[in-house]
Design brief:
The complex is a heterodimer of chains A (129) and B (107). With 129 residues, chain A is mostly beta strands. Chain A is built from no helices and eleven strands. Helix content of chain A is 0%, strand content 55%. In chain A, strands 2, 4, 5, 6, 9, 10 and 11 form a seven-stranded mixed beta sheet that branches. Chain A has a four-stranded antiparallel beta sheet with strand order 1-3-8-7, with no helix packed on it. Chain A starts with a strand and ends with a strand. Chain B contains no helices and eleven strands. In chain B, the strands form two sheets. In chain B, strands 2, 4, 5, 6, 9, 10 and 11 form a seven-stranded mixed beta sheet that branches. In chain B, strands 1-3-8-7 form a four-stranded antiparallel beta sheet, with no helix packed on it. Classes of the chains: A mainly beta (129), B mainly beta (107). The interface between A and B is medium-sized, with 26 and 26 residues.
Amino acid sequence: QVQLQESGPGLVKPSQTLSLTCTVSGGGSISSGSYYWSWIRQPAGKALEWIGRIYTSGSTNYNASLKSRVTIAVDTSKNQFSLKLSSVTAADTAVYYCARDTRLYYGSGTYYVDAFDVWGQGTMVTVSS
Amino acid sequence: DIQMTQSPSSLSASVGDRVTITCRASQSISNYLNWYQQKPGKAPQLLIYAASSLQSGVPSRFGGSGSGTDFALTISSLQPEDFATYYCQQTYSSPWTFGQGTKVEIK
């Protein structure tokens, strides 16, 4: 059973860079299977916001609203992927989740949709001086 | 970006009630629509994908319907463990976007 675990500092100063790592375990290599690996965040009491994703080839997709500040990278040797968010402000305070972005086939098996089928437990990051 | 609008924002219901939550997309997304359940302090869990396909392990009292711009999540007989917040999500076009959530509370 694949498990994801976020790690990183819980407090970041304004204007600095937020750095988080997601470790994938229990399901073999992060490179096995056709999966993207995503980051999602959720400010307290608010909705979920997709930040971006990476394929194990290194190909990335970012939310345009954050693209200028976001870098997602993968380290297949450590079965990890990471998030860096630069120039943070209080608005970046949130619970940050990593998740597996899977192609789920339906019907006759010809069609698929992307969905987040495995999530980490989340890590709270506060931006404050 | 595609905007996802859920209604209601919250509802109160009793155990055994039939509950329906709706989600509207700002443009047609075919059936690229997923539903998640989130309990306090926990990560979301996938319930329904492709608008109406039940994720493995999810109880059959959960059902999804809709296509295009209008979708619904129905819980046929609400159980105590179903009190949570529910989110819809589109994966038709990047960036993936979520609705604002519907909180299901105990009446």
